[in-house]
Design goal:
Elements lengths: L1 E3 L4 E3 L13 H15 L14 H9 L50
Antiparallel strand pairs: 1-2
C-alpha cells in the first residue's frame, strides 16, 4: 500500500508471497511505488518498517534508504476484534477480515 500527504510518500505493508521471494518482485513493487509517488509530487519516502524487522530494514538499506533518525509514535483509536486470519498461506497470519471495533472503555489492544 502506498500513499502521500503532498510532500512525503509512504510505503506500508509491502508483502510478497513466500513462494515469490527472491524473484525481484519486491524490488519491482518498491520501484513502482517510488515512481507513482514521484509522479504525484512526493519528494521523499520513508517506508514504515518495524524496528525489529531486520530483514526488511536491510532490504531498504540495500536500495539506498537511510536511517531517518526519527521515531514514530502511534495510538490505536479502535480495538481490533479477534478474527480468523485470511492470509495464512502467505505467512501473513496477522491480517484479518474482521473490521476494527471500538471498545467501550477506550482500552487499546495492538494485535498487529
Amino acid at each position: 500500500m502506498v500513499g502521500h500527504d503532498g510532500h512525503r510518500g509512504w510505503l506500508y505493508y509491502l508483502a510478497v508471497d513466500a513462494n515469490r521471494r527472491g524473484t525481484g518482485v519486491r524490488r519491482q513493487m518498491t520501484s513502482a511505488a517510488e515512481n507513482w509517488l514521484r509522479e504525484h509530487g512526493a519528494v521523499k519516502v520513508p517506508p514504515m518498517v518495524r524496528t525489529t524487522n531486520e530483514a526488511e530494514l536491510g532490504f531498504y538499506e540495500h536500495l539506498g534508504y537511510d536511517d531517518a533518525t526519527v521515531r514514530a509514535r502511534s495510538k490505536r483509536l479502535v480495538q481490533m476484534a479477534p478474527a480468523e486470519p485470511i492470509l495464512r498461506k502467505s505467512g501473513l497470519d496477522h491480517m484479518t477480515r474482521t473490521p476494527p471495533t471500538p471498545t467501550d472503555d477506550g482500552a487499546q489492544q495492538d494485535l498487529i
